[in-house]
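FAQ: What does a ligand-bound record look like?

Like this one, built around zinc ion:
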Amino acid sequence: MFLNSREKPIELLYYIALSKRKELTNNEKYQLSNLEKGFEGESLYDEIFDFIGHDNLYIIRDLYLHINNSVTQYDSIIVMDNRIVVNEVKNLTGDYRYDNNSWYKNNRQMESDPFIQLNRAKNKIVSLGNKSSLDFYTDSKVIFPNDDFNFTSDNEKMHNQAVMRTQLKNYFRSFRNETIGDNAKNIVQLIKNSITSKPDTADFINISELKHGLYCGHCSSFNLLKGKFQFKCSDCGSIESYETHLVRAMFDYKYLFPSHPMTRLSLLQLIDYKINKNTVFCALKKHCYSVKKGNSTYYTLKYSNFNQQLSVIRSTQRYKDKIIHS
Ligand SMILES: [Zn+2]
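The answer part, i.e. the structure of the complex:
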């Protein structure tokens, strides 16, 4: 059973927010599409695992563990009574080759090696186990969930560490006789005790480089007509309340400026004062926790996910959002 949900990674949310408010450079476009592809691969992994079934397993996804003074990211950790399996999901496409300890794509040598990354992550778990009184074995596989991924290698060991899309269902079926008793519960607890948050990142962007204002949630246009309680998009006709726009802007702020806490003024700057400051203040009080520091008040969102929050707003709002699908 999945013990936690899988959310879009923070880096992906950053590039999505950035793409709404800035013309992306080629490198930013590349990062965005890579991160989207990675998340699609992980979602496909989850979907196929759901299809096969996993009630007899504990699965913790997308987590950071602090072990031996460093932080490592894991896509998926499967826990059973006597072993742990670490899965690294790589949604690669195209023809790859692994020869002489190096990866090649179309004969070009690659800088990152998923097997080395996986081995490092696996050894951290081994070390965690060795320091505990629990008895378990740690195994690992790189999962390649994309149909369009071909891999050749002269090294048999690499084939044993890889699971291709065509093998994935059988791979998940191979867990069907596993059990989760007390030892598995204790292993989960051991892992949970090492969970940490993602290391802090600095802001990459200055607010002056961004388009200020509000944009349509459907077509992303900044051409909005202001009504008394709502904005209407001039391009697609969708209507969204002030509240919807403000919460979207608060999430944009959170992803774009991770190291600068949001203030009423910084939010007003981002939305280019399109909504009056008292309404902004009420929305901040409703949707955020406030922290007073000296003369300033900072706001942090009460919810982790914009879409979840949007459905709550839409189910209770007086002036309904109306998305026009052309
Ligand atoms: Zn629109």
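Follow-up question: can I read anything off the structure? Yes, for example: The chain has two domains: 10-196, 207-316.
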